[in-house]
Amino acid sequence: MRLLSLLLPLLLACSAQAQQPARPKATPPAHAKPKPSKAAVASKPAPAAQPVITLERTPCFGRCPHYKAYIFPDGRVQYEGFRYAPMEGQAESRLPPAMVQKMLQQAKSIGFQQLKSEYTGDISDLPSTILTIRYGATTKTVKAEQGTPAALQELLTFVTTEVESNVGTSVR
């Protein structure tokens, strides 16, 4: 009996504790980002590569095509056309990766990295063609309006023709 009187308070305490609702887990603050699981990290696709070439044609007071195109190493082209562009709105197309390499090779052969940053003149209504090429972590941008060297003009024409002729084609 004495044993029962010693065990009874212990059993009642355990029973009362089992009936108490479980404490809610602390919730992280709203601004905290949840940690992804190891499985989620492993299955997450790699971030998209950065464009290696960006071509921009700026507007003028007339009917100059205004658009911007981003060319990626895999040949993907992200395009956004504005007024008088070959196509208005956003589109994505694809060039052969060998064509992208050909553009980069032509830029290298004309010494694109050593060109001046701007070829502009005194005429305020001229549209600009702006070409940016990424070399690893650095980029080189050249703005061309007038007085561009012939080799640069050939490169601009080449890239422009490839972008404009592929606008609206589907990504394969």
Summary keywords:
alpha+beta, disordered N terminus, 7 strands, 172 residues, single chain, globular
Tell me what the structure shows.
The protein is of the alpha+beta class and 172 residues long. 31% of the residues lie in helices and 22% in strands. A 7-stranded mixed sheet has the order 4-3-2-1-6-7-5, with helices on one face.
Summarize the structure.
The protein has 172 residues and is α+β, with helices and mostly antiparallel strands. It contains four helices and seven strands.
Can you lay out the helices and strands and say which pair or pack?
Elements: H1 2-19, H2 38-43, E1 53-57, E2 67-71, E3 76-81, E4 89-94, H3 97-109, E5 118-119, E6 129-135, E7 138-144, H4 150-166
Parallel strand pairs: 5-7
Antiparallel strand pairs: 1-2, 1-6, 2-3, 3-4, 6-7
* Pattern of helices and strands: HHEEEEHEEEH
Enumerate the strands of the largest sheet in spatial order, edge to edge or round the barrel. 4-3-2-1-6-7-5
Q: What global shape is seen? A: globular
Tell me the fraction of residues in β-strands, as a range.
Answer: 15-25%
Query: Roughly what percent helix?
Result: 25-40%
Tell me the span between the first and last alpha carbons. Answer: 85 Å
* Sheet of most strands: 7 strands, mixed
How many helices? 4
Contiguous uncertain segments of 5+ residues: 1-18, 23-28, 37-47
Radius of gyration: 31 Å
Strand elements, count: 7
- Taking all residues together, what is the mean pLDDT? 80
Q: Quickly give the structural class.
A: alpha+beta
